[in-house]
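In the current project phase, we have settled on a layout for protein records. One protein thus recorded is set out beneath this paragraph:
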Amino acid sequence: MKTSTAFFFALFFISSFAFGQNFFKKIDSLVKDNYQKNPDVSISVGFISSNKKYYTAYGKLSKESSADVNKNSLFEIASITKILTSNLIAQAVIEKKLKADDYIDSYLPAGYVLQKNLKNKIKISDLASHQSGLPDIDFGKLIELNPQQPVSSVTAQTLTEIINECSELKDYGKYRYSTIGYTLLGQILEKVYGKSYDEIIHEKLINPLKMTNTLTKDFNVKNKTTAYNPDGGVQEFFQWNITASAGLVKSTAYDMTTYLKAVLTKGNPIYEAALMTEKIYYKDEKREMGLGTNISTDEQNTIYLKSGDSMGQSSIICYNRAKNWGIIILLNQRNSKMRQNLLNDIYEKILK
């Protein structure tokens, strides 16, 4: 009986591995085809299926470089940072540091003073699901001031003034994508843990998962890609500042696939927190939102995903918990259409 059980376990393992390999050969073919049609845009992709990780990459670190992009090449993951932040929020809930439905009033740093009609109105979950109604940072103006580093002029004082001067939540309870919401979530995390966001994300995500190429303040490394804006001009990576929790983490296909493995594998705090972020907190005719996570459902699948765009790079991460797979796509140019078309192609032709 023992021999029989071992045999069937080995057969299952081999079948699962072959299944994952077959999937990824098809994915690699689509990624290669996409690169051949867009040879100026380098691509790095990580895929996980049944806890087995696979990688492919095409292109160079820059247009002038002879070095190939690989699974450890550094990209801006931009707003994918938000799902890391929401996972940290969920971990804080599990640790009873806060509740998702707590009002933000008592968690805000000193200096914030909500006007009377805003008090006991906005929940932490409202910030995380983009329905707080708070005004946001004006990126158009910031880009005009500094097209290479638009968020550099955003300070604690900037944020305090925006919040304190807000007298009405014109679209509270309706979806409106918000950078300031996730900046506030970062500050809330800092208050409940008594540490900087940088320290928190290292302590609870980066270090436990040994994501050694996921970087925050210091990202001047050898395997860093060059970023390009939609017109092909060189674009600087965003420098770390107060908006970090909304979109300033840098990472690799290898490290983000490691994160996906933790999200999909029972028995760790990141998995438990991810389950909480997948709960629907917002729903209308166009979308369903968890905590920082977009939820897409068809007749066969429920997909959790988040995209990211910096001034010079585009990325997307998604996973299917029921079918135990996940994928990260990183581009070294800001090109949301290419990113989305590639994911759609992979999903419709292979993963669906």
Notes: The radius of gyration is 21 Å. DSSP finds eleven helices and twelve strands in the chain. The first strand starts at residue 43 and ends at 49. Residues 2-37 form the longest helix (36 residues).
